[in-house]
Amino acid sequence: MTDDTPADPICPLCDRPIPPGVPQSLHHLVPKLRGGKGGPTVLLHQICGLM
Ligand SMILES: [Zn+2]
């Protein structure tokens, strides 16, 4: 690839890019109570994570 601009991560809830500078939230795929600590996480818009 010749474009060295890193692609914005995609929010899996709304399928839109998450540009740097907007409020974002790291969401654990597995609840911590079920051993998800340190497990995979997804990046969401903060407003999406609150729904
Ligand atoms: Zn979103």
Structure notes:
By secondary structure, the chain is mainly β. It has one domain (1-51). Helix content is 8%, strand content 20%. The chain contains 1 helix and 2 strands. The radius of gyration is 13 Å and the shape is globular. Residues 11, 13-14, 16, 44-45, 48 line the site of zinc ion.
What's the number of domains?
A: 1
Mean pLDDT reading: 85
- Most strands sheet: 2 strands, antiparallel
Query: Approximately how much beta-strand content do the residues carry?
Result: 15-25%
User: What ligands does this structure carry?
Assistant: zinc ion
Put simply, the count of helices is 1
Structural class: mainly beta
Distance between the termini: 36 Å
Following the backbone from N to C, one meets helices and strands in this order, namely: EEH
Shape: globular
Q: Low-confidence segments, ≥5 residues, pLDDT <50?
A: none
Protein topology:
Elements: E1 24-28, E2 41-45, H1 46-49
Antiparallel strand pairs: 1-2
This protein binds zinc ion (ZN).
Short summary of the structure?
The chain is built from 1 helix and 2 strands.
Which tags fit this structure?
20% strand, 1 helix, 51 residues, two-stranded antiparallel ribbon, single chain, binds zinc ion, 2 strands, mainly beta, 8% helix
